[in-house]
Amino acid sequence: LIKINISWHYYYPACSTTPWQYDGVVSTLLADGYERHRIIPTHNRTVVVDDKLGIKNNHLDTVDYKHGLKPIHLYEPQWEWVEYTPKTGKYRVLDKVYPDGVKIPKFFFGRNIIHLPTVKTHVFTQITGAMKNAFGGLLNERRHWTHSVIHETLVDLLRIQKEIHSGLFAVMDGTIVGDGPGPRCMVPSVQNVILASADQTAIDAVSAKIQGFDPLEIDFIRIAHEDGLGVGDPREIEIVGDDITGVNFHHHKQQQTFASRGQHMIYHGPLKPLEKLLLRSPLVPWSYVASRLYHDVYWYPTIGKKRVEQILATEWGELFRSYDLETYKQRNRADHQLVGSAL
């Protein structure tokens, strides 16, 4: 399984899995002898993000086309979700959030999984990476119910992953990173970094460190480290490859947008007593509409688009454009014509 990260159905730098990140992982798996039909891109959706549109706008469809991959969408009716209870330890919070049972995709059991997150900050968890990427795969569309206890939720999900998957790995793209009120409304910058690890806690800890944070001050990393689910202390992590001793992107914590301030008021502030009424009742569509209006109608056209254009003017932007599906197909046809002429 390859768990793609689509945090927005628009292309926004550092927000979602990049096509070169995805392409590089798939190409390596195929070169190492993995059978094509066993490489399965996995998607889920949220109440505010259209994953199928995101695949297209982030040029991930080109990688699927290039390698002949068939993505699955876990919210479609053919995929069964089954109740799960940890075999080791207990849930910290999930059983309380979902008293009728915690359900996860049956298809995940016994399979290896590779997560493809990006290096970025987040309005709820300070940074988001490999551990948060599981949030978008193991829980269904009601996963926003966990936002008030999001750190403990990510630890619960890591415990589940370590029990159900035969192998865990993550490749995190930091060629372009995001700072500010992520996962969407960030300031992107080119940093030319790629992280990879089989330890989901360690890779998130290193991502936090190079962004300028103390990983053990981020609750989900600290708790996972204390629970023995991974290594969250950078002093105990072996770094192979580039020397990151002096790397610091000077990212900011606790930055908010107008929309996320409202969410924080519901999850942690004066509107907390109304959380169930506002987010778990027939009134809930108001929040989806409000989020879409803010992010898609206001923020992206007025603020985000200029930042996208700045990144598209870089060499990574040029590479991104080359992954456009029609551009790829035209280039592929031209290459075949050249080969035919040579013959």
Structural summary, described in words:
The chain is an alpha/beta fold. It has one domain (2-237, 244-342). 43% of the residues lie in helices and 15% in strands. It has 13 helices and 10 strands. Strands 1, 2, 3, 6, 7, 8, 9 and 10 form an 8-stranded mixed sheet that branches. The protein has a two-stranded antiparallel sheet with strand order 4-5. α1 runs parallel beside α3 (60-67), α5 packs across α6 (150-164) and α6 packs across α8. The two termini are 39 Å apart. The mean pLDDT is 91.
Helix content: 40-55%
Number of strands: 10
Q: Biggest β-sheet: count, sense, barrel?
A: 8 strands, mixed
Unreliable spans: none
From the alpha carbons, calculate the radius of gyration and give it in angstroms: 20 Å
- The helix tally amounts to 13
Order of helices and strands: EHEHHEEHEEEEHHEEHHHHHHH
- Beta strand %: 5-15%
pLDDT averaged residue by residue:
91
Structural class: alpha/beta
What would a concise description of this structure say?
It is built from 13 helices and ten strands.
What are its keywords?
343 residues; alpha/beta; 8-stranded mixed sheet; two-stranded antiparallel sheet; 43% helix; globular
